[in-house]
Every structure is written in structure tokens, then in C-alpha cells.
Amino acid sequence: MSLNKRKSFSENINIMLVGEVSAKCPKCRRPLMYEKAKTSNKRYELAHIYPLNPKPQELELLKEEFRLSDNVDHPDNLIALCILCHTEFDNPRTAEGYREMVALKQSIMERNRQSKLMDEYAIENEIAKIIDALEHVSDEDIELSLEPKELSAKINDTMTRLTKNRIKENVSNYFSFVRRKLQLVEAESPDSSMMISLQVKTYYLLQKKQTQNQQVIFKNIVEWIRHRSGSESDEASEIIASFFIQNCEIFE
Residue ranges of the ABC-three component systems C-terminal domain (predicted)? Predict the structure, then answer.
């Protein structure tokens, strides 16, 4: 069997693969670049996750393992590692080490997908007004609601108990407040609240297509709301997401 020739990957591929790990080795967190004589220098290698030219024992070892791409030179099968971690990954290659690297690359790819989704799917600017109101809410503004019993039927065991309790508390404390703010937004800009609801529903359905894990879906929606609203408050974004769970746009 002829051997695959090792490619010299383009600068763009290098930039992309180093960038997706934030210029740090995803295994040991060592910087992948260093500065010397006013220049940036490489301290990494592009590792093939499934080997470029597997040895007979590696073919046997990995024959039942999941592959990220049939093309060994595809970026999905490449990961930027520091030289030491690359050497340790390759020598000797193990099924456990291979699975760990596949999982690591999958998490990077998922993070990239989420980042792209957040940039592609907008939410009405008016959501920022509600976030801002939540960040400055006073005790007098809070109108406690009854225990949100409907949530128990919507949230399943893929959600952690801590997150579930936070959502219930958010709904109990802030549901009426957020609803009033949405009504004010609607009065100022007709159809805005409907647009926000539809956008949240759409983003939820996009997440649901990728995973049934409610913990992951909730986290991604909270991050999207925070990102698109320009807020730095995870808590306020969680309150908004919790509102839409109770309001049936999320976890219908």
C-alpha cells in the first residue's frame, strides 16, 4: 500500500486550526506561539487525529473507531498541538488516546458551530432594553409569581438539579416583570415582542436539531441572548431564557 505524502498545509489552514484552540495546546494549555526577536514563532504541529499513514497494528486498533472525516487531511481530522503533546499522542497510539482526541476535536467543532449560529441568528434590539431593566431591577419591581408547576413537565433529567432550581426561581421572581417589559416594548414598537418570541423559538429548534440535552440547549440559548444583546450579565440572560421556557418558546 502506497504511503500518503505529508502535506504542507497553507497559512490559512494553520491560522484557522491555531485560532480554534485560542493559540493554546488543547491538551496541556501551553502557548502554541512564542515571541523572539520581534517575530512570532511556531511551537506547535498540526496533528492528524486518524493517522496519515496508519501502521498495520494501528489499522487493527482503530478499525471500529469513529472517524471525523474520511479524508485524513481534512481540517476536521487535524488539530493543533504543542510538539510534546503531539509526540505523546502518536507514540504509542492507543484507542483511549484516539477517543480522547476525537472528543476534544468534536468539542472544538461544536463550539465553532455555536459561535457561527450566534453570529448568524439575530434577536430584536429591544431585548437589550429588558436585559438592562433586569440589571437595574429593584425589590419593589419584583412581583412574586406562584410556583411555576408547568416547568416540571417541560424539564427532563438531562437538566441538572441546580440549573432546574435556578430556572424555577427565575420564573417565580421575574416572570411578571419580564412580561410587563415585553408589553412596554410592544407598545413602543409593535410586533417586536412577537419577533423576539419567534426568534427565541427558532434558535431553540436549531439547538434541538443538534442535541436533546436540555442542559446544553439552555446554556447555548443563554449565551446567544447574552452575545446578541451585548450584555455582560449571564444572570439576566438566564432570566430571559427562563421566561421563554415558562412561556413555551423553549422546551415546549
Answer: 118-251
**Whole-model pTM?**
0.76
What are the two backbone dihedrals, phi and then psi, of residue 30, each rounded to the nearest 5 degrees?
Answer: -70, 145
Which of 219, 224, 184 lies closest to 202, judged by CA? 224
DSSP 16-84: HHHHTTTTB-TTT--BSEEEETTEEEE-EEEEESS-SS--HHHHHHHTTS--S-SSTTSGGGEEEEEHH
